[in-house]
Design a protein that fits this description.
Blueprint (H helix, E strand, L loop, with lengths): L7 E6 L27 E6 L12 E5 L3 E7 L6 H8 E2 L4 E3 L3 E8 L8 E6 L12 E8 L1 E7 L5 E8 L30 E7 L10 E2 L3 E7 L2 E2 L14 E2 L4 E8 L11 H9 L3 E12 L6 E17 L10 E7 L17 E6 L10
Antiparallel strand pairs: 1-8, 2-3, 4-11, 5-7, 6-7, 7-21, 8-9, 9-11, 10-11, 10-14, 12-13, 12-18, 14-17, 15-16, 17-20, 18-19, 19-20, 19-21
Length: 361
Amino acid sequence: MAQGTDVIIAHQKGSVWNTAVQTNVANAGLLLTQWPIGNGLGDLLYDDSLSGSGFRSNAIRGLNKLTGDAPGMLRYTGLEHAFAMSMGIAGAPTTTDTTGRIHVFQLATTLDGLFDTIAVMKVGPAATPALPIWEYPSLKYTGFVIEFISDALATITFPLIASSCKSTTGQVTTTTAAVTYRSKVLNVFGTHIKFRANASSGAALADSDKFYPSRVVLTYRRNMDSTFVLDGSGVMPEPYYTAAPEISLQVDFPVYGTSTLQTNNFFLTNAFSEVPLKVDITCTSPVLAGAATAFHNFIFEFPNVVIGNVEMPVTGPGVIPQNVQLACIERSAAPTGMAGLTKPMRVTNTSAMTTDALLNP
């Protein structure tokens, strides 16, 4: 019997679109909570020619686009490669405190030529009879959406576009016996998270710039698409761009006010004054990254943030919340405290992974 707890998902970087590479290797495991992409089989297409018989005489299977949003839990390690492929620039990590490694993921102008092979084993290896692995020869990560909630595990969702699916024969990966995971734990939790903001032109961010939302949603989308073309292959070509990338923050405060933990009128004031901000979100694990003093960590930095709508809805006699929409855009020069950062976003991740995350998991 097939069940979700049996599923193994493995990923490795490819080099030629729609040409699979072997994913049955150590550290290739990708932990997700759902797998949203099918095998490409579409609805039946009918020939409605007027034949005089009173019935249809032919039906042909159509095609379904191989796209979907794959949700998972945000972890301090195990997602380094997915971050690198989503953003486009990584590099060899720097060492901190002997065994910790600092990975810096930056936005490339395009994601052209960056894609993985994904293998999905949907039935456990002991199943009888054994069933084949579903293999997607090439799959592109077109961004991510991260949701931070004060009393919950942080989640991450990757929008994906694949070239094709081999679900019966012809797979390169025929077993996942060697697939391992960098970690099945090390989740980001609400109590790990710090949110700071001040004027983009102001001093470097400090803890005096902390704010206290109950929920933050970071949306990063490359706005890409692909479609089948008339080449006789039934393969979707490498995705193309349909619009400029979108990077935004939705920040929700449980209470609108001006007391110690409610200093969120700052956003309304700066919205009317049209003062751009700089923002960072820091997540720090209580678990060391294999080092004496370096903890697993994420830092999300945004050098130039424009305040959009600021809402304080009154829905009854109870508390009034505040919901803030922020757009993250590029900056002509890096602000104080964010050296070298002019693109709309940078992600820094401290883990124990020792290799360039753009090369492989």
